[in-house]
Amino acid sequence: MESIKHRTQISLDDWQYQTLLDLSRKTKKSLSALIREMISEKFAPTLGVAENDPVYSIVGIGSSGQKHTTRDHDVVLYGKKP
After folding, report:
1. DSSP label at 53?
2. Residue 56: what pLDDT?
3. What is the pTM of this model?
4. Residues 35-52: what's their mean pLDDT?
5. Rounded to an integer, what distance in angstroms lies between the CA atom of residue 47 and that of residue 43?
6. How far apart are CA 13 and CA 8, in angstroms?
7. How far apart (Å, rounded) are the C-alpha atoms in residues 57 and 52?
8. CB-based contacts of 76: which residues, under 8 Å, 6+ apart?
9. Could you tell me the residue ranges of all domains in the chain?
10. What pLDDT is stored for residue 44 in this prediction?
11. Among 3, 17, 44, 52, which is least packed, fewest CB within 10 Å?
């Protein structure tokens, strides 16, 4: 699920940074992505957020990129009436 991201800066101990860097190389994920995943894994269950629920993987798969799609879905799906 796409959301607004806020930029922040953190200070890590050397071992924390090295551990994240190693994991980043192994998983081919950015440090930021790893930290976001860890925060989600830690706090989502306590907040009742089901972000890791597989059902959320389908959110947005039908996105057309057009703003009127919800309102004019019949036109988008079937074309203009003759």
Report:
1. S
2. 67
3. 0.52
4. 75
5. 6
6. 17
7. 9
8. 64, 66, 68, 69
9. 14-78
10. 73
11. 3
65 DSSP assignment = S
Using an 8 Å Cβ cutoff, are 11 and 21 in contact?
no
- Residues 43-69: what's their mean pLDDT? 68
In the numeric block, which tokens belong to residue 6? Answer: 């806020």
Q: List the structure tokens of 57.
A: 């993987």
The C-alpha angle with vertex 52 and arms to 7 and 39, in degrees rounded to 5, equals 35
- Looking at residue 77, the DSSP 8-state letter turns out to be H
Task: Report the pLDDT value the prediction gives residue 58, as an integer from 0 to 100.
Answer: 73
Residue bearing tokens 């930029």 = 7
pLDDT of 3 reads: 74
- Token pair recorded at residue 53: 């629920």
Residues 6+ apart with CB under 8 A from 21: 31
- Encoding tokens for residue 73? 């879905």
